[in-house]
Amino acid sequence: MKKTLLAGLAVVMLAPLVAQASCDTVKADIAQKIVANGLPESGFKLDIVPNDQADQAGGQVVGHCGNDSQKIIYTKTAGAGDESNSSPKTGTSQDSN
Question: How much is the pLDDT for 28?
Answer without folding.
Answer: 94
